[in-house]
Amino acid sequence: MKLAPLVAAGLIAAAGSAQAADFSDTWIGYRYSSGYAEPAIAADVPKNIFTLAHFSGYKYGTNFFSLDILRSLENDPANRNSTSQAQELYVAYRSSVSSSKTLGMKYDLGPVRDFSLTFGFDAGTKDTAFAPKPLKLLIGPTVNLNIPMGFLDLSLLAYNETNYNGIVGK
Hints:
Layout: H1 4-19, E1 21-38, E2 41-58, E3 61-72, E4 87-98, H2 99-103, E5 112-126, E6 135-147, E7 150-155, E8 158-162
Antiparallel strand pairs: 1-2, 2-3, 3-4, 4-5, 5-6, 6-7, 6-8
């Protein structure tokens, strides 16, 4: 499994957003679930999931980064060795650039606090015979609203996904 490019991209994104942060929060986590379904596997696949995530705000907007490492416990063999279980890596990155902060203007439009440009990507890989390698790119406008309980951001995003199927052509 070629994890190095995805890990490197995630670390660069997190490091770049952290150095100019007005605020930031980074966390690690662990969870377990037994309810996952995988292609061509009839039984549920239990997984251990390790997470590293980061959120920060800087002069012109916000950044979010998340890296999940999923390790199957049974029923999901790795392609390289049928006695070991599959491993999966999934990275998500989102950035939002504020028009009011970038252009130096304020909006007085009722609950509308700001307009932003949101963009990002999701990428993953898994070492099974199916060998998925999703890459999802997105970009679009976001309306930032003030609501009584805090705030709400609504986005309309253009989305493009490519993937890989290791079984086709075998």
